[in-house]
UniProtKB/TrEMBL annotation:
Residues 28-207 form the ABC transmembrane type-1 domain. The chain crosses the membrane at residues 34-54, 60-84, 91-111, 158-178, 190-210. It is a multi-pass membrane protein. This is Osmoprotectant transport system permease protein. Belongs to the binding-protein-dependent transport system permease family. One of its GO terms (cellular component) is plasma membrane.
């Protein structure tokens, strides 16, 4: 076990392992590209849906049950299905990652909106604010902490799952996992897994830092929402 850990450390710190088209730096950038693009597309789809459901109260059953759907989604199966339908391209990977992230963002966005005290919205409407003003100037700011939490969770899940790009012969850190399995190279498999885990943790910490900066002056009551 100690020898394996030593080999893993050498693999991770080797200069040659970080350079070239198959190096860790290149694979890391590919993985980030897949993950961030999929998360942004998912957010563009899920945020309006979650905000609409939370504001109107309609479709709450859908929002609540989407979380369970996301956990039950067979990602590799979906990749294979889309791959068979569309051929060799990145579409199967992006569709699968977006489908994974959307339920998390919708659910947390709805939860954030639902946690806003209805009396706050009523007071805003009583002052003559239109529905979109109530939504964007009153409800959305109060719901932002939970919405940000949903984005963090979605991003971490997507980073962990983006290894499937290598399943259909594309890049990313999953390349080390799949190639290592094919070559029976345990060090390479572990190296890929460690890099994915470190990337997921780093992005989560970065987003947590952004969240703290955004809400550092907010009173404790707003965080409770």
């Amino acid at each position: 076990m100690i020898e394996l850990l030593k080999d893993l450390l050498r693999w991770l710190t080797s200069g040659s392992q970080w350079s070239g088209t198959d190096g860790i730096a290149t694979r890391l950038l590919e993985h980030l590209q897949y993950s961030l693009l999929a998360t942004l597309v998912a957010a563009a789809i899920a945020l309006p849906v979650g905000l609409l459901i939370g504001h109107t109260g309609r479709g709450a059953f859908l929002a609540i049950n989407l979380s369970g759907f996301g956990r039950a989604l067979p990602t590799v199966g979906l990749v294979t299905l889309v791959f068979l339908a569309s051929g060799l391209s990145m579409w199967p990977v992006y569709i699968s990652l977006v489908a994974l992230a959307v339920p998390v963002i919708v659910t947390n966005t709805y939860a954030g909106m639902a946690a806003v005290d209805p009396e706050v919205g009523d007071a805003a409407r009583g002052q003559g604010m239109r529905w979109y003003q109530v939504l964007f100037q009153v409800e959305l700011p109060l719901a932002l902490p939970l919405i940000m939490t949903g984005l963090r969770l979605a991003c971490v899940q997507v980073v962990a799952t983006a290894t499937i790009a290598a399943y259909v012969s594309f890049g990313g850190l999953g390349r080390y996992v799949f190639d290592g399995l094919a070559q029976r190279d345990l060090v390479q498999v572990l190296g890929g897994a460690v890099l994915v885990a470190v990337l997921a943790i780093a992005l989560d910490l970065a987003l947590a830092g952004v969240q703290r900066l955004l809400f550092r002056n907010r009173p404790p009551r707003a965080h409770a929402h």
